[in-house]
Amino acid sequence: MDGVEEQQLMALLYAEHADAVFFFARRHVSDQQRAEDVVQETLLRAWRHLDQLDGARGNPRSYLLTVARNVITDQWRAEQRRPQTVAGEAVLAVLPSEDDIESALEGWVIAEALRRLSNEHREVIHTLYYEGRTMTDAAVRLGIPAGTVKSRSYYAVRALRGILEEMGVLR
Predict the structure, then answer these.
(1) How many CB atoms lie within 10 A of CB 129?
(2) Is the pTM of this model over 0.70?
(3) Which of 100, 119, 121, 130 could hold 156 in an S-S bridge, CB 3.0 to 4.6 Å?
């Protein structure tokens, strides 16, 4: 097919089927502009594949409507891959703030420092400070004398201070 015949065929396709494709698209997309885009893309794809439009094989409208459905599906899929724009105070409220990030970083640093303590010192620190137990309760829970809990807590805090200095957190 030469260029003149292609132009005539496309003009004929547009004249006879563009409205039907537009109404089909309008039922499936949210606004008129998008429906017009579907018609344009459908006719562009039809022009690229004119060899598949054979009047002897039937009405080209069914082919054009199938192409329009594919265009709509492609647009929907592309839309689903794009990140969604969000706005509003409710969205901003759930985003982590600088304070949240700082406290998370502090938590990681403290967890790493505690990991470097000996097991006995870590148990005492956890029991006294994280569980909030008294020296006597900690002694009962750990199964050691209260004096041992007291001395371990003293040395654990000193060791923790040294570890934090080594990590560059304290001076």
Answers:
(1) 14
(2) no
(3) 121
